[in-house]
Specification:
two-stranded antiparallel sheet; about 160 residues
């Protein structure tokens, strides 16, 4: 699935965003854990995270602003300008390895732009881009079979 975060903060696959968040968590000293499906997740106290928090709504800001992105949904919601400011400042404190430097700098710039405009950052799932990226990935990897063609066709029908 493809994720677009407004203000130029992120435009890529949800899995890339997830991997970036996990890398940020590890750089900030948070533990990560693998679930039964071998997916790495950030070890937070999920019992304290509400549905509102997952959508980006925090009545009381978290102690560490990084929780705003750690707990956030991959495909919908927002980040308020006040949270974006704290988040940009916190991300700027971290020593980011080269592999994640561009992603982090774009995210920080997007946070600062949202603050400057006093607008929330919007998370949006883009099904059209998702279908296109799936198609391109399969073509690139030489796995473009009839089954994949059919799956992409079915997915594209749901977009319209």
């Amino acid at each position: 699935m493809s994720l677009k975060i407004s203000h130029g903060a992120f435009d890529g696959l949800c899995s890339e965003f997830h991997d970036w968040r996990c890398a940020i968590a590890e750089m900030a000293g948070y533990a990560t854990e693998e679930d039964d499906c071998e997916m790495v997740n950030i070890a937070l106290d999920w019992d304290t995270i509400t549905d509102d928090n997952i959508r980006g709504v925090w009545i009381t800001p978290p102690g560490d602003p990084l929780h705003v992105i750690f707990a956030h949904s991959d495909v919908q919601g927002k980040i308020a300008p006040t949270d974006a400011l704290r988040l940009a400042d916190r991300l700027s404190e971290l020593l980011i390895p080269a592999a994640w430097k561009d992603t982090t700098q774009k995210f920080i710039a997007g946070c600062r732009l949202a603050v400057w405009r006093n607008e929330p950052m919007q998370f949006e799932w883009d099904p059209a881009t998702t279908v296109h990226r799936l198609l391109m990935d399969h073509m690139r990897d030489n796995l473009f079979t009839d089954v994949v063609r059919e799956q992409v066709h079915i997915a594209s029908l749901t977009v319209h």
